[in-house]
Design brief:
nine-stranded mixed sheet, Thiolase-like, 403 residues, Peroxisomal Thiolase, Chain A, domain 1, Thiolase family protein, binds acetoacetyl-coenzyme A, Thiolase, alpha/beta
């Protein structure tokens, strides 16, 4: 049951992360078209070959319904498969497996997965204040009737920072917490970012002391353990094995996936320190017929350092409660014995809304395709990718393997 490895990523493109103030504003459809052009060029394919579209829809305030049909019309293509994915930071991983499954089912042959994440010019019905706030406190709905508006927000649980801090506090109470070890995650990833020409924090290396001396945002999370929101956008082409055989790049076959959605707010979790990634990852490994120790690298969603710690444990790279020891004992850089987030992760490459997780998918593809430049791993045949939405509540796992 599941994928049989007959669909692959063959091309990708992403905008260089930029601060919102300096990034160009583009209408979302314009971004879709531009990203599609860049990803197709990378794959060596023509737009006429596309017959599937997976799109991230919520930001389309130009039109809130029929988003895939509107985008297809704008691209001038007809579709055999269309899907909107809205899973926050789990969107990217969710898009890739849905595209691969659709290809394997024979619904379509080539799918564009696309997330526009630059700001669009404000329209007459947009409220710039609300949008600025939504961008800042991304994860929480303040909408009338939303459970978090009633039970979380009045207690100061605004958006993601406080939710992840709460999980970190619970972890600390249960298993202990060494701030230096947590800072090492950010430091090793910042080292990796020096090897990626598009990383927003290329050119500024980091030490454990700097992380620990940086502003405390939500105890125990320092600002340098938290992602900085940036403008961006990404697109990936997933196609059939037959088409992949003719592709320009070495394909990354999608051989396993898992997805698990749980509570949206950690306040409702039975046990905050165990995330739904445990189920998602074990399904993905079983489907691909591989184990965590077979992986050449892990690209783990990293909105916060605590996300990385929990993901390492729940994906099965080390037992529960032993993440600190694992991080202390391993060099997580691309030069090390456990290459993790080899592009710098979102902490150091940059986090653009919902497209941030696609940077992890694209880095896995780049490594498998052998175009990682100075950060290229000697062996990159099997890579694990995770996606995290909400406050550890939406989890996705992918296994990508070179052909
Ligand atoms: C979405 C999902 O489903 C799952 C997820 O990914 S959850 C995560 C979603 N993302 C978020 O919630 C965003 C988290 N980040 C933040 O809220 C903010 O960055 C923050 C509150 C941590 C800091 O904001 P702030 O204190 O107002 O910083 P601000 O005054 O804007 O900037 C101060 C400086 O620090 C920098 N900075 C801001 N945030 C930074 C960060 N996280 N890391 C490093 N530098 C940062 C700024 O660039 C600025 O530098 P300059 O003065 O040189 O321009």
């Amino acid at each position: 049951m599941g994928l049989t490895g007959n669909a692959a990523i063959v091309g990708a493109a992403q905008y260089k992360p930029e601060k919102y103030q300096s990034a160009p504003q583009m209408f979302h459809l314009e971004q879709v078209a531009d990203l599609a052009r860049l990803a197709l060029r990378d794959a060596g394919m023509s737009i006429k070959e596309l017959d599937g579209l997976v799109i991230h829809g919520p930001q389309f305030h130009e039109a809130s319904i029929f988003v895939p049909a509107m985008a297809a019309e704008y691209l001038g293509i007809e579709l055999n498969f269309a899907e909107v994915v809205d899973l926050g930071g789990c969107t990217s991983v969710g898009m890739i497996w849905r595209a691969a499954a659709a290809v394997e089912m024979g619904l379509c042959e080539a799918v564009l997965c696309v997330i526009p994440a630059r700001m669009a010019p404000f329209g007459p019905n947009d409220d710039p204040m609300w949008m600025a706030q939504a961008m800042r406190y991304g994860g929480h709905s303040t909408a009338f009737g939303a459970p978090e508006a009633e039970f979380d927000l009045p207690y100061g649980h605004l958006g993601q920072n406080t939710g992840y801090a709460m999980i970190a506090q619970r972890y600390a109470a249960k298993y202990g917490y060494d701030p230096e070890v947590m800072a090492k995650i950010a430091v090793d990833q910042r080292f990796n970012a020096q090897g990626h020409q598009d990383a927003i924090f290329r050119g500024s290396e980091l030490t454990v002391e700097q992380v620990l001396a940086s502003k405390m945002v939500a105890d125990p999370l320092h600002i340098l353990e938290i992602v900085m929101p940036v403008a961006g956008g990404a697109a990936v082409i997933v196609t059939s094995k037959e088409k992949a055989a003719k592709a320009k790049n070495r394909p990354a076959f999608v051989t396993g996936f898992g997805e698990r959605l749980s509570y949206k707010s950690p306040s409702y979790a039975n046990e905050m320190t165990v995330t739904p990634l445990a189920q998602a990852a074990s399904k993905a490994f079983a489907m691909a017929g591989v184990r965590p120790e077979d992986m050449d690298a892990a690209q783990l969603y990293d909105c916060y350092t605590i996300t990385v710690l929990l993901s390492l444990e729940d994906a099965g790279f080390c037992p529960k409660g032993e993440g600190m020891r694992f991080i202390r004992e391993h060099n997580l850089t691309y030069k090390g014995d456990f290459p993790l987030n080899t592009h710098g992760g979102q902490l150091s490459f940059g986090q653009s809304a919902s497209a941030g997780g696609m940077s992890q998918v694209i880095e896995a593809f780049d490594q498998i395709a052998g175009r990682g430049g100075e950060r290229q791993l000697a062996r990159a045949d099997q890579i694990f990718v995770s996606g995290t939405g909400g406050v550890m509540s939406e989890q996705g796992a992918l296994i990508l393997q070179g052909g």
